[in-house]
Amino acid sequence: MSSPVVSTAAMNLHLRSGKTPLHILKDIDLSIEAGEVIAVVGPSGSGKTSLLMVLGGLEQASNGSVTVAGTAITGKSEDELAIFRRQNLGILFQNFHLIPSMTALENVALSLEIAETGQSFDNIAASAKAALTAVGLGDRLDHRPSALSGGEQQRVGLARAIVGKPKLLLADEPTGNLDQDTGARVIEMMFALARDNGTAVFLITHDPALARRADRILSMNHGRLTPMTESVPA
Ligand SMILES: Nc1ncnc2c1ncn2[C@@H]1O[C@H](COP(=O)(O)OP(=O)(O)OP(=O)(O)O)[C@@H](O)[C@H]1O
């Protein structure tokens, strides 16, 4: 059997707020297989985004182990983490983070260019165009973010997150700002990526209907992650 894409053991995250020490993540043991979609639910402030940040190498765990796509990311330098992210991760935030001066096509192509896959410019442009077409934006390639609606910008963000066929997709409330139809479309694309490419998906959501579609639901409470056993309220 292949090893999991995500594996953490006895992982803790301590931060400080002024002089007050905070124990944000407590003894996290998490494993996510290739092609598996995990939904993480839980109250505001419970630690969901903090866990996403640790898995993405955007926040360093205080102790324990964190292995993502075969790389032990604890203790790596910022430069090493940047390379690790470019080669293995897709990240989809609620607030898109698109580059305002670049067109949709350029925003998506940039993520392939900085991943340094060695592809020619023509190949990169073709992949970016295919990803944008897949999210229904084939006719918006030359639009800058300011000329796109919120839902369209989110879909550009999704195209950018998936164009490199990442081993792990991290998504924080990806449908929070979207109408139902656009949200459903974004979700379909994420599931397709897991199914067709074997991408492991870590999805934070407050949407019970969305959580129920995942392979597994985990609940975060006061920094502890536990399997969701009772059914998610509608
Ligand atoms: N850089 C930081 N310094 C200090 N405390 C932080 C920092 N980042 C997050 N926290 C605290 O960590 C706790 C967990 O925050 P986190 O954003 O992970 O929660 P969440 O479950 O994602 O919440 P939400 O659903 O509201 O997004 C909160 O109490 C928050 O105030």
From TrEMBL:
Keyword Lipid metabolism attributed: no
Family matches, as CDD domains: ABC_MJ0796_LolCDE_FtsE
ABC transporter domain sequence ranges: 8-232
Domain of life of the source: Bacteria
Keywords: ATP-binding, Cell inner membrane, Cell membrane, Membrane, Nucleotide-binding, Translocase, Transport
Annotated Gene Ontology cellular component terms: membrane protein complex; plasma membrane
Membrane spanning stretches: none
Coiled coil, from the record: none
Gene Ontology terms for molecular function: ATP binding; ATP hydrolysis activity; transmembrane transporter activity
Homology family: Belongs to the ABC transporter superfamily. Macrolide exporter (TC 3.A.1.122) family.
Protein name: ABC transporter ATP-binding protein
Originating organism: Devosia aurantiaca
